[in-house]
Amino acid sequence: MDLAALLLALLIEQAHAMPANNPVWASFRGWSAWFAKNFNAGAKSHGRLAWVLYAAGVGVGVTLIWWGATKLHPALGFAVNVIALLFTMGFRRFSHAFTLIEDAVREGDADAAYKVMAQWRAEQDRPLDVPTLPLHRSAALAIEDGLVASHRSVFGVMFWFAVLPGPVGAVLYRLTDHIARHWSRPHVGGDSPEDLRFSSFARQAFEVIDWVPARLSALGFAIVGNFEDAMHLWRNRALRFGEDTRALLVAAGAGALGVEIGPPGKADSGLDWSGTQAGAAAMRSAAGLAWRTAILWLTIIAVWTVAQLFG
Fold first, then answer.
1. Are the beta carbons of 133 and 110 closer than 8 angstroms?
2. The pTM is what?
3. Bridge partner residues of 33 (DSSP)
4. Residue from 293, 56, 48, 67 nearest 159 by CA
């Protein structure tokens, strides 16, 4: 049933993507702002309490809806799973921006590529801090964000949907990602040391939640791409990319594609690796890498499903 729900949700999403400003996510954004406004008193413990109340409330609510629907009829429980996945999973959530940037890069239009990239980053709560970008940097940033988005909007959702009962894992994964980003925005959580303490627990909690699925996604990039280079950059990512889960995904993706993305390399970094400059062809390769990884994930879930049925 998990596999059928995933496949159906992906097919529906490809035909008709859920708008980013849909009422469900608008309500989540509103509640995120409410918790930040009413619980932020400048201490990490306040952020922890707000996070637990918010995440637990949503988790319990989703579980009760799914459980009640399943008790009425298994088909209703299946429908709840599919609907929840439509609101939490899908490539179309970011593929439109990625394609626009790819087209601009192919046509040599640096201004258009930058404009779309800046808008996409703003939607991710990660605004650009430079007024312009050369074409290869817009392409590189789009590949970075595309790989991370494919993980957080598809692969990570698949993992937690498969691990926890019903749709609660998928919903909580996307919600905790949203909370971590939303509360870190200066105009929401604030940018003073006290305000950053409030959002620190949300960021740390998502790093823990994303630890296993991020490594599985990075391994997937390596398997369907250049395995040796991907694993080399994975092991040595601290020399250039950083230590968090985003850095892991970017490092593995860079190696799998053989493309220069992430922070610019330095001669004294100690990292013995260099890739080709990012461009339209590299962006097309990145899209292919994401789709091949999705097929790999679905295959693994299918094998797991069959093993459960006949085990």
1. yes
2. 0.92
3. none
4. 293
